[in-house]
Write a structure and sequence with these properties.
- The chain has about 575 residues and is an alpha+beta fold.
- About 35% of the residues lie in helices and about 20% in strands.
- The protein is built from 16 helices and 17 strands.
- The strands form 4 sheets. It has a 7-stranded mixed sheet with strand order 11-10-12-14-15-9-13. Strands 2, 3, 6, 7 and 8 form a 5-stranded mixed sheet that branches. Strands 1-5-4 form a 3-stranded antiparallel sheet, with no helix packed on it.
- A hairpin with a 2-residue loop joins β14 and β15.
- The protein is globular.
Length: about 575
C-alpha cells in the first residue's frame, strides 16, 4: 500500500488488541481475498478496483505505531495509490510461489505493510486479484465484503488509472471460473470515514457504555472457568494433527435443531462440542472459546477487525440431555456475548489475576469458530421438509487427518474447530494437539456432532451418558481426569538453578520501574501483580533491547511468573 498522509490516530480496539498481541509474538495470521474475473479484465480496471478499496475502507489504510508512552495506536492514512505486485508465471508452481510472496515474510509488529495487493496476468489481462490482509485489521466477515466489492467493481465500467508497463504473454491456460459471487451488503459510512474498529474507545480511557459492567462480569465469570479439561501426555508440547471433515448432513441438521430450540446453528454446534468435551473429560463443567463477531447493526457492511474470542463455561454436572444442554448453552452464550465490550488484553489480565489466585495457569483448551456464511443463510430460508429431505439423503463426505509440525505449547492448546457451510456441504477444518487428544477423540469432535444431532432429531432426548454409550469406542482411549481448580499444573521449581541473574534482573526491574512510575519493584512478584499493563509490554521489551537484552516474548508478561524467573531467561544480545 502506498499510504498517504496521516489523518487520524486511535487506540487499538478490543479485538485488535488480541491480534496485535499475536503480531508481537509472530503468530498473527493473514486473511486472503481472491477473485478470478470471468472473462479476464484489463489491468486498469483491476487497478481501479483496488484503488476504490483503499478509498472506501480505513482498515486497509491502517498501520500500528507506539506512542511516546510505549502504547500501541492505530494510524489511519489518507487514500493512496495501491502498491501492486505482478505475476506472469506460466506454471501453477510459479503462481503458487507468487502467492507465497504476499504472505512471506510474515506480518510482524515492525512491518507496517499490513495489506498486500497482487494480480496474476495473462495476455495483458488480469485473471486473478489477490488481497492479503493482516488479521490485526481484518476479520473473516470483512473477507466476504471485500470480495463482493471486487466482483462488483471488476464487472462494471471503471475509471481509467495510470498505465502499466507492458506484460509479456505467458503460454498458460486461463484459470477455472470462481465460485458464485456473494451478494454485497450495504456499505456503512461515507468514503474515507468508516470506523477502524468498533471498539476503538475501549482502551482509551473514555467512558464506554457497558465496559464497566463487562469488566465486573468477567471478574466473576473467570471464577467458574475450569483450569483445563485434559491432562496432556507431554505438557508443553504441541504436536499438531490437521484434520478436514466434510458432511452434507451436518448443516441441515444444525438448522433443524436450531429451529426446534429457537436459537442459532452456532449455539447448537457449540453445545455439541460442549457435550463431547464433557463426555471425554468427565469434568463437572466445560469451557469452549467461541469466536464472536461483535458488530452492531450499523457495522455489518464495514470492513475492519471486530472479532473477539470469549470463553463460555457450562455446568454439565447433572448429566443433562442434549436438548437441555443446547438451552443451557444458548443462555450462557447470550450472557457472555452481551459482555463483549471489554478489551482482549483487559480480559487476559483478568484471567491472569485468577491464575495467580489459584496458582495454576488456564489452558487455552478448545476454540470453536463457526462462520455464518451466505450458504448457511440460504439454508435458513428453507422449510423443514426440504431440510429433512437433505438430511435423509446425505451424510459424511470426507474425513482426512494427518500429523504435522511439533512446536512448544505454552498455552495449553487442545483443539481448534473452524466450521463453515459451503455449497452442498459443511466443512470443518481443525487442528488438534495429539499430546492431549488421541485420534479417536479427534474423530469424535469432527463426526460426533452429526451423529448426536441425527439421534436427537429422530428420537428421544438423550442424556450425555446415553450419548456416550451410543458413541462407544469412537471416543478413543479411556478418559483422562482433568485438573481441579485447586490443583497445580507443572509447579515451578523452588529456585532458578543457581544461574546468575543479577544483571538481567536489574535491567528488567529498571525497565518496569521506569514505565510504571515505581522505584522499588519487588522481584518476587509477577509483572501484572506489580500493576503492569500488557499494552506497555512492547515498551518494556524495547527498553530491554536498548540495554542489550533479549529472550523474552510478550506472552511471558501475562503469566504468573516472578520477575526473577523472567530475568533468568534474558540473555545478552549478539
Amino acid at each position: 500500500m502506498s499510504a498517504g498522509a496521516e489523518i487520524r490516530r486511535a487506540p487499538l480496539g478490543g479485538a485488535q488488541q488480541f491480534e496485535w498481541w499475536k503480531l508481537l509474538t509472530g503468530d498473527c495470521n493473514a486473511v486472503t481475498v481472491e477473485y478470478r474475473p470471468e472473462p479476464p479484465i484489463p489491468y486498469l480496471r483491476a487497478l481501479a478496483a483496488l484503488r476504490g478499496l483503499l478509498a472506501r475502507h480505513e482498515a486497509l489504510r491502517t498501520t500500528f505505531q507506539l506512542d511516546d508512552a510505549g502504547t500501541p495506536v492505530q494510524v489511519v492514512h489518507a487514500p493512496g495509490e495501491p502498491s501492486v505486485r505482478f505475476c506472469d508465471a506460466e506454471s501453477d508452481a510459479g503462481r503458487a510461489a507468487f502467492r507465497r510472496t504476499l504472505t512471506e515474510p510474515p506480518f510482524t509488529a515492525t512491518d507496517t505493510e499490513l495489506v498486500r495487493f497482487g494480480v496474476v496476468c495473462w495476455d495483458e489481462l488480469v485473471v486473478e486479484l489477490l488481497v492479503v490482509v493482516s488479521h490485526a485489521v481484518f476479520d473473516g466477515h470483512s473477507q466476504r465484503l471485500v470480495r463482493a466489492e471486487l466482483v462488483e467493481a471488476c464487472g462494471a465500467d471503471a475509471p481509467p488509472g495510470p498505465a502499466r508497463p507492458a506484460v509479456e504473454r505467458p503460454a498458460v491456460e486461463r484459470p477455472a471460473v470462481e465460485r458464485p459471487a456473494v451478494e454485497r451488503p450495504d456499505r456503512a459510512g461515507d468514503v474515507g470515514h468508516q470506523p477502524v474498529d468498533s471498539a476503538r474507545a475501549e482502551v482509551s480511557g473514555e467512558l464506554v457504555p457497558g465496559r464497566e459492567a463487562a469488566e465486573r462480569f468477567w471478574r466473576e465469570e473467570v471464577r467458574h472457568l475450569p483450569a483445563r479439561l485434559f491432562v496432556p501426555s507431554r505438557p508443553g508440547v504441541f504436536q499438531r494433527y490437521g484434520a478436514s471433515y466434510r458432511s452434507a448432513a451436518l448443516a441441515p441438521a444444525l438448522v433443524l435443531a436450531a429451529r426446534r430450540h429457537r436459537t442459532t446453528p452456532t449455539v447448537v454446534y457449540s453445545a455439541l462440542v460442549h457435550a463431547l468435551l464433557a463426555i471425554m473429560s468427565g469434568e463437572p463443567a466445560t469451557v469452549v472459546r467461541n469466536h464472536f463477531a461483535g458488530r452492531t447493526t450499523g457495522e455489518r457492511g464495514t470492513v475492519g477487525c471486530y472479532h473477539c474470542i470469549l470463553p463460555t463455561t457450562v455446568d454439565v454436572s447433572d448429566n443433562p440431555s442434549v436438548g437441555t444442554l443446547i438451552e443451557r448453552v444458548r443462555v450462557r452464550m447470550f450472557r457472555v456475548q452481551s459482555r463483549y465490550r471489554v478489551g482482549q488484553l483487559t480480559l487476559r489480565e483478568t484471567l491472569a489475576a485468577e491464575e495467580r489466585r489459584r496458582g495454576v495457569p488456564f489452558a487455552a483448551g478448545t476454540t470453536v469458530n463457526f462462520d455464518h456464511s451466505p450458504e448457511l443463510t440460504e439454508l435458513l430460508g428453507r422449510d423443514d421438509r426440504e431440510l429433512t429431505d437433505l438430511l435423509a439423503t446425505s451424510g459424511e463426505l470426507e474425513l482426512a487427518m494427518g500429523r504435522n509440525e511439533v512446536t512448544p505449547d505454552r498455552d495449553g492448546f487442545d483443539a481448534y474447530l473452524m466450521t463453515t457451510v459451503e455449497p452442498a456441504a459443511a466443512w470443518v477444518l481443525a487442528s488438534f494437539n495429539s499430546m492431549v487428544l488421541d485420534p479417536g477423540q479427534m474423530r469424535a469432535l469432527l463426526a460426533g456432532p452429526e451423529r448426536i444431532l441425527r439421534a436427537h432429531l429422530a428420537g428421544p432426548d438423550l442424556t450425555l451418558d446415553q450419548v456416550a454409550a451410543r458413541l462407544g469406542g469412537d471416543l478413543g482411549d479411556p478418559v483422562r481426569v482433568g485438573l481441579r481448580p485447586d490443583e497445580e499444573l507443572d509447579p515451578p521449581p523452588a529456585h532458578d538453578g543457581g544461574a546468575p541473574v543479577a544483571p538481567a534482573l536489574a535491567a528488567l526491574r529498571g525497565a518496569v520501574a521506569r514505565l510504571h512510575g515505581g522505584d522499588d519493584v519487588d522481584p518476587d512478584r509477577c509483572y501484572l501483580a506489580l500493576g503492569g499493563r500488557l499494552l506497555l509490554v512492547p515498551a518494556v521489551l524495547a527498553r530491554l533491547a536498548g540495554a542489550g537484552w533479549t529472550g523474552l516474548a510478550p506472552d511471558d508478561f501475562a503469566r504468573p511468573e516472578s520477575l526473577t524467573r523472567l530475568a533468568g531467561r534474558l540473555r545478552r544480545a549478539g
